[in-house]
Structures are given as structure tokens and as C-alpha cells.
Amino acid sequence: MKKKFLVSLIVVCVLLPAVLSAAIADLSIGATAMYNVTGDEVVAQFNDGDFSGLTDISNYTFGADLRVKFLLAEVDVIGMYTPPEDSSSNHELSVLTTGGISLDLLGLARLGFGMGPRFRVLIDKDGNAFVYASDNTSIENWNNFGDAFIKSPVSYRATLDFNLGSIMLGVNYTVDSTYTFENYSEIDRLFKADTNSGKFGVSLLFSLL
Q: Does the record's keyword annotation contain Signal (predicted)?
């Protein structure tokens, strides 16, 4: 009984300041960049004192970051753009949608965690767009967009943003799993994701509310 009380007290002590310091609603949009090197490789490079990869622009993928927050709940949409390699290749958008929690830490920083599916959008040279699920199934009819949603792998995303007035500058870490909503019973796949294979990123966000 005492342990349950202590756990409840700790949860209240952590969440209460976050709730009191949080804005009721927030809409933020900005730019993001992902470093295309896995977490364990980054640690190994840092241990070796090798920082050359950080200055190589080809190691990054750039895109947009949209976040909608209401109290402690937050929905994020992250789109990463990969240009075509040649005239016959397609433009590619990797879209990650997550839902989760977001805690304001005394108005100085914001800590978030969410999960959701990641799918691909390919755009050909004529401007035709096709949605692909993780199994490379093409969703040519946008009315069947939900198929891509349930067939695509679920990813985790943790964020830490520092509040600079109406601007937030933050870092994030994204980990892909093999779990899909289509095979919802295979829940163990959600917890077997290799956290060392995740990728770091940075975001610069502008608050519109």
C-alpha cells in the first residue's frame, strides 16, 4: 500500500508542474533534419573522436515538422524529403505521424514521446503521387489511404525542445519497429525494436498559438 502511495505521489509531483506550466493548446511548425547514421554508430564515432560525419551534408535528410498540442496530448506529423537521384527517379516523402504525450517543464523545455506509422509517398516527374505501405503495396486511390496507415510500421519518437519564446529548438530520436496495426495481435514486435538503430534529428519550430 505504501509503495502504491509513493508511486502515485511521484507521478503527481512530476505531472502537476507540467500541467500547471503547460499552455492549453499549441500549434507549432518548422523545419527538421535527420542525421542518417544509427545511434550506435554515432556513439562509436564520438568515442573515436570522429566528428567528420556531422559536417557532411549528404548524411542528412531534411523536411518539415508539424505539432499540435492540447494539454498533455500531442500529435506530430513529420515529412522528410529525398530528391530524385536522376531524371527517371521519383521524389520521395517519408511521412511519420505520431500521437503521444508532451510535458512542459516549467516553461523552459518540452519533453515528448509518441508513436505512430511511417509510410512513403512517391511523386513522379508528372506530379502524380502514390502512397506506399511498408510492404511496398501501392495505395493509388487516396480513398484507401487507411490501408497505408495500418500496413506501415510503427515508429517511436522522443523529443526534447528548449523554449526560446515563440521559437523552440530541439533534438529528437526516432526508432522504427516491425509492428503494424494490421497485425495488431503481434504486440511483442512493438517492444522488440532495436533502440540502438534509431536516428537523431534536430528541429526548429515556430509557435503559431
A: yes
Burial class (CB in 10 A: 0-12, 13-18, 19+), 66: middle
Please check the confidence at residue 115 and state whether its pLDDT lies above 80. Answer: yes
Report in angstroms the alpha-carbon separations of 93 from 61, 80, 90, 118: 10, 5, 10, 10
171 beta partners: 160, 202
C-alpha cell at 32: 527538421
The pLDDT tens digits of the residues spanning 52-109 come to 888 888 889 999 999 999 888 999 999 999 887 777 777 888 889 999 999 888 778 8
Terminal C-alpha separation, the chain: 43
Cell of 33: 533534419
What is the dihedral sign for C-alpha 197, 51, 95, 157?
positive
pLDDT computed for residue 65 by the predictor: 96
Is the distance from CB of 162 to CB of 204 less than 8 angstroms? no
pTM score of the predicted model: 0.80
Q: Which domains does the chain have, with CATH numbers?
A: 2-207 (2.40.160.20)
Distances (CA, A) of 190 to 101, 153, 156, 163, 206: 18, 9, 9, 31, 32
